[in-house]
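Hi there. Long-time user, first ticket. I'm pasting a complex I've been working with (about 476 residues overall). I'd like to know whether the download I got is complete or cut off, because the file seemed smaller than I expected. Thanks.
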Amino acid sequence: MESTIVKSINYNAYFGDNHVVKDVNMDIPRNHVIAVMGPSGCGKTTFLRGINRMHELIPGATAKGQIMLNNEDVMEMHPIFVRLKIGMVFQRPNPFPNLSIYDNVIAGYKLNGIKLPKAEKDRIVEHSLTRVALWKEVKDSLTKKGSFLSGGQQQRLCIARAVAMEPEVLLFDEPTSALDPISTSTVEELFHELKKNYTLIIVTHNMQQAARVSDRTAFFYMGELVEYDITKNMFTNPKDTRTQNYITGRFS
Amino acid sequence: MTQLENEIRDIKLEVLSMWNLVESQLRKTRSAILNFDRDLAREVVLKEKRVNAFELKLDRDCENIFALYCPVAVDLRFLLAVLKINNNLERIGDIAEGIAKYIIEALSDFDHDSFMGTDLLKMFDDAISIVADTRLAFEKEDTILARSIFKRDEVLDRINANAINKLADCIRADTGIVNDALYVLSIIRKLERVGDQSKNMAEEVIFFVEAKVLKHAEGNPANE
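Hi, the file is complete. Here it is re-exported in full:
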């Protein structure tokens, strides 16, 4: 039986007076890939950033309601602990340009002041790079700068950096929008592998990507969660007219 | 209107043109039987090539839309339905051609009593009317009309089931009509298939409009 790992309860997010996410209730099951889609400005990225408390970093941003991680309210947890448990990967690959591939992977530990023995660091680097299918490609050039890699490899390095902290949930904000189709395909394959160990929540503008990689899809419109269903149902027989209009490109 | 909507509208018009052609093939075949008009029957056989050309073009056009537009939801269901309807229409075209070939092959006019006694003409009229109403259901996306097709197909099934006894009676009365009776029985069997094909097409209309799959449904699919 599938268990819920993240649960959003009447979650609302604001930028000043602007109410951008409205009363979102959503259960996210463990080891699933969830796609979040919707037109620009619909609140999907704000919702994603609310899950690991990144939203509150923006001046004037506030939130109401609850985001539960394993039945604990993330607002009651230390934000650093939340972000250790809920990793995030962004639109553009952003490895630390001055750090080596090796140091990029364990950057989370270094930045949090966690000291590890060399053997443990080696193990984490190999394990994380293997998880993102990058180990074979870079094992002989671990001391080279991360920026030396191709765009797709850099994005996988960023995923490895998130994976290195052993999170339970990984958030992706349009993770392939800056990648070419081959790199996109590699990252999408990776999602299928990663979901064996993590729960993935992916904001994407690419509907076909949502259809290809996710188990469930959420459609946001004007801050509301309009529909949230098994992806197969969503793309063959959406229940809400707004969802149907959006996915068939008839949105005005 | 998006480009995909334009493409789908064009596909719908194409299907309706093919549907009209197939109906016309059935009407001409009926007329050819009634008047034992071999020239008209030959025309039906020749025009079957146009039905086949429609089928190939529709297949190709649907394939292009799948490749270029990645349709989803109602658009996806519509195109899947079109692919199957296309196949059903082509089969009905084949049936009309097959009946026309019987007329061409037959050595003499069919014995009047043998086909009047079996409700052959009524069956022809019903089959043509069912195909036309299924077309209307497709055109207007009318699932009530589509559901009505299921009941009407049963009428064709009954005529088909009774035909063998009626023809046996005719043969007993006059053994000279055995050949004609066999042709008539074959035609009746073919017309019964027109009813089945129309029922399949009606199921596809319901599938694309309501996202309900009635194929192989237990009991009466009209109630689903």
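A couple of notes from our side: The longest helix of chain A spans residues 118-131. The mean pLDDT of chain A is 93.
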